[in-house]
Every structure is written in structure tokens, then in C-alpha cells.
User: Fold this.
Amino acid sequence: MYEFIPDGDPGLDQTRGTGSTGWHPDSFRQRGWKAAYRASPRFVSVGWRRSVDKPSEASVTIPLAALDDAALRYPAIQPFRTVLGIVRDGVMVWGGIVWNMRVDLQERTLELAGRDFLSYYETNHAYGGWSTARGGDFQSDILKRMALRAEWGIQTTTAAVTAMPRKREMSFLENEFKPSLDVMQDLADNIGGFFFRSEAWRSTDGTELRHGIRNTADRKPRPAVDASGKELPALVDGQTCEIQELFLNGENIATTAYTIGASGSDKTAGVWSRRDNKALRRQFPQRDVVNTMGSIKHQSTLDLHGDTALRFGATGIVTPRVITYPDTFDPRDFEPNAGQKIRLVSGNEFMRIDGWYVITEARVVIDADGSDRCELSLVQEELFDETGFPGP
Assistant:
């Protein structure tokens, strides 16, 4: 367990300088808060869930008896000030902010519920008054800007952000307050987008927990690999896993996609896009999807969102729910936000499956005895196929 503590000099908060926020690099306003180590109490259970394009989640249950040290009682630990790091076999597998606590006075346990450091940017806003250059900025530069512009923030590093070839146009008026994470997700979840995630690690001889953003260069899924870089074996129903259910959904299918952009001023009123999948009309009846994205003012960006809706709506979604067998996979190897795919094989009585599926969610539960259970949600790889759509 860690705690956010202030870093930097508050006396320099009104001094302009070369920091990423525009203020003095040694000011509290620029340096913000760092996570300092408090203790490592024993736990009853621990688990985490990673979902594509979302901050990951974790929960830890601790016996109240393990909190005998007064430094681990309220208000020394409390939501948004307490930071959690989960270490397994000497490796940091999850790190993030504790947003909720539940004290069970009958079972005499404390449950900590947290989300990774990207969750901070759900309430840190890309307030208005700025825009990309004419023709757009590189997506990697916008991603960095969303993290580095936070004043009195949480010291997110962008050193691991990979360059991306596509540019995007964005602009925000003075009265717009769009969450920074929404901007990141709008960039990522698109044709020509990328996968991104938060990573955490111990620093300064374990006395601090650091974190940063890592991304892929594109939105193309690649085979999942283990820590050594070896490709993971196939998920074979009845051999390496059990497929508990298949969920088939046709509500995403779209022959026409409308995207409604910003309105309310002379410059932006009426900005919208229509994109059509004419070939799909020979397979399904006409079906429209309408997405409203009020902060978008550029036609190229609206068209991109429309094309993405058509790509994802070109076929129904098949979502297998898979439970891996013990000792077959290391749960740490499953990271949906790294853009992983894995071969799935099943000869079930409803539909035969033998192909690549993209991991969209990985849920891991570890008991006090060290045993674990991993549950995966998947979708077919073709939903991420960008063939036929414009490149950077």
C-alpha cells in the first residue's frame, strides 16, 4: 500500500517556467503528487480485471487484524489518497488508485476497490482554448499532452509512448470541459487508432510507486506472448480451457452510420457525417446507427468515427467466455490493452470455432493459498480488420 504525498515547492506555483504545464519545473503545481510506500499487509483475496479501452480494476480484501499498525487505519488510509500495488512472484502486476473502501464489521475485513492510474484522467479535463495544428497533430503527441498538462497531478510519465503515423484534428473552446481520458479513448478506439494502458512499477528501492502510459503503434491485434516473448498456446476447449458460454449479438450491425458533431455556434452548427456500407445491404435489412460526439468539429474526424462504426458493424459479434485451466497459462500474460489475440478452438454442438480471437477482458482472482482462476472474454479478430479503409 502507498499514499499520495505532495512533491515540489508550493511557493513556486505562480512562477512560469519550462514544465509541461507551463509552470516552474520544481513547483508543486508542476510536480504534483507522488505515491510513497506505507505497508504490505497480508490479504484474504485479491483480483483484477483488465478491459479493452478502459482503466483496469482491482480489489483486495484484508483482515482488520492485519491493520493493527495505527498507520493503516482511517484517516491514514482513505479513498483517493491511498494507492495500491499488487505484486506476485516479485513482479508488479497491478497498480492504481483506491477509490472505494468497504469495512465488513461482521467478517472483520477491509475491502479496497481501485482502478489504475488512467482513472485519474476521468476527472482531469482537457479544458478549452487549444487546438491541434492545421491538418492535425500526431496521435502520440496528443496522448502525451493529455497526461502531461495536468496541474497538481500524479506524475504520469509518457516515456514509453510509441510514435504513431496518423494525425488527428482536435479543438476545444474555452467553455468545453472534456475529460482527458475521453480524448485518449476517442483517439484509440478508431480505425487507425491504437491500444493503450497504464503500467506501474516500484522505484527508489521500493519506497515509491511510479506509473506511466504505454501504447501500441496501431490498432492491429497481435498474438499474445508470455514474458519471454513466446507465443501463448491455443485455447482449446476441453484441453487448455473451458468455454462456458457463447454470446452472439447483432445489435452492432450497421449499414449506415451517422455521426453528429459539435453544434451551438456559427462555426460548428450542423457538423455531421454519413457513411454507408452498401455491400452489407445485400446481407441485412437497412439499419442505422447514430452516434453523437458533441466535442468533434472536424469533418475528417467525424468520417473516421463513422467508418469505425461500420467496420465494427459489418458482422454480428461472437463473444466466447472462457475459463483457463490451472497451471496452463500465467494470468499475468493476458493484457487486453496490449492488443492481444489468441487462437480459439472448439467443436461445441452449436458452432465450430477455429480461428483468432481478440482478448477484450481478462479477470483474475487469487486466493490466499496462491491458487488463481482466469476468465477471458473474446471477440472475433475480423472486427478489427481495417482492410478497405484509408491509412494515415
